[in-house]
Design a protein that fits this description.
CATH architecture of the largest domain: 3-Layer(aba) Sandwich
Order of helices and strands: HHEEEEEHEHEEEHEEHEHEHEEEH
Helix content: 25-40%
Number of strands: 16
CATH topology of the largest domain: Aminopeptidase
CATH superfamily of the largest domain: Zn peptidases
Structural class: alpha/beta
Largest sheet: 6 strands, mixed
Bound molecules: zinc ion
Number of domains: 2
Shape: elongated
Radius of gyration: 23 Å
Distance between the termini: 14 Å
Length: 381
């Protein structure tokens, strides 16, 4: 393959400076103004390129969505580059325990790895292609969203709308385990479980009480007992709240359940099982609500084909590209893959420590992966 993206001018220092600009504007999901300020920077990085901007206002207190489309008229379905601009780190992390800094090959900062680093690589790669006079194989649509870290409540519809129009989706979530990309993700379900019993004085009227916490203990064991590693199913009760005082039989207890499933059929089976939970104590009620939030993203034959094309691009650039086994972590790639649109995820910067104070990207991965993203835009016909 004669790949122009392998040799287009791309300068590490310029890319690091761009990442620095984006990372040093803090943008936790709930800080709409922070995210809007990052989107302003994103627009600046596209200045002078043949693109049009569609900036949509935020809803429900979240920041808005920025769509950047290449402007050449074309009947071809576009390549969708999917990126979230929110981070999990609260405001103050940058001036506190996770300042932007470089230590050897590591670039630290809140959201640098997940996923502003990868987001910037896609923009830098596209810009370098255009400046070198290379026309992408198809139109490119960049979508920058504000709420991935909380399940994409206000951006899912826009993501699915753009995915339906697209031929391919490239997700700039971080690479993992030494630069591996993601070609399959489990589906994610969330459930809210409430037990409701009968309060009583824990000393004087103990026999009258029906404990919501005791019932919840049974339910927790039932839910966690649904985990089946061999089938790729996990269930976790990650939050429990109940009772009002140590000397009162608890009237209510609530629990939040996380479910991960390998495919839609298992997803349906598990949703039915969880929604069908029954009380052990007939005097206590059990109420469950919830569903699959992110559908499973299986590695289809179309995705295998797309992976092989990405591997050929990587070889032309000079590195070996592998994927990782199906991951339990969800992303917006789940939405696009579930629509049957071939999706490669984890194309962003390599590094480690997502969502922690050790979050960092690797400088050595910047140029190869910016070229990989550019090469995919160049060649995905
Ligand atoms: Zn992410």
């Amino acid at each position: 393959m004669s790949l122009k993206a392998a040799t287009i001018p791309l300068h590490e220092d310029e890319v690091i400076e761009g990442i620095r600009r984006w990372v040093t504007i803090e943008s936790p999901t709930y800080d709409a103004s922070g995210i809007e300020a990052v989107l302003d920077e994103v627009e600046k990085d596209f200045e002078g390129l043949p693109v049009t901007f569609d900036r949509r206002p935020g809803v429900d207190g979240y920041a808005g969505i920025l769509k950047v489309s290449t402007a050449e008229p074309s009947n071809e379905k576009p390549i969708l580059v999917l990126t979230h601009m929110d981070t999990v780190h609260p405001k103050g992390t940058l001036t506190g325990r996770l300042p932007f800094r470089r230590d050897g090959d590591k670039l630290f900062g809140p959201g640098l790895y997940d996923m502003k680093g990868g987001a910037y690589l896609a923009v830098a790669g596209y810009r370098a292609l255009i400046r070198a006079g290379v026309t992408p194989a198809r139109p490119v649509t960049f979508l920058f969203t504000p709420d991935e870290e909380v399940g994409s409540p206000t951006s899912r519809a826009a993501i699915e709308e753009e995915a339906r129009k697209a031929a391919y989706v490239l997700v700039t979530e971080p690479a993992r385990d030494g630069g591996r990309i993601v070609t399959a993700r489990k589906g994610v379900g969330r459930f809210h479980l409430v037990t409701h019993g009968r309060p009583a004085h824990a000393g004087a009227r103990h026999q009258d009480g029906r404990s919501a916490i005791r019932e919840m203990a049974h339910q927790i064991l039932a839910v966690e007992g649904m985990t089946d590693y061999a089938r790729g199913i996990t269930t976790t009760v990650g939050l429990v709240k109940g009772g009002s005082a140590a000397n009162v039989t608890p009237e209510t207890c609530t629990a939040e359940i996380d479910l991960r499933v390998p495919d839609p059929a298992v997803g349906k089976e598990m949703v039915d099982r969880i929604l069908g939970l029954k009380p052990v104590d007939p005097d206590v009620t059990v109420r469950v609500e919830g569903d699959i939030n992110r559908p499973a993203y299986p590695k289809t034959t179309m995705i295998v084909d797309m992976l092989e094309r990405a591997q050929a691009v990587a070889r032309s650039i000079g590195f070996d590209l592998q994927d990782c086994p199906m991951t339990g972590g969800g992303s917006d790639g789940n939405f696009t893959a579930a629509l049957g649109v071939p999706t490669l995820d984890g194309l962003g910067i390599d590094g480690a420590g997502a969502h922690t104070l050790d979050e960092h990207g690797l400088v050595s991965s910047i140029l190869p992966r910016a070229r990989l993203l550019a090469g995919l835009m160049e060649t995905l016909r």
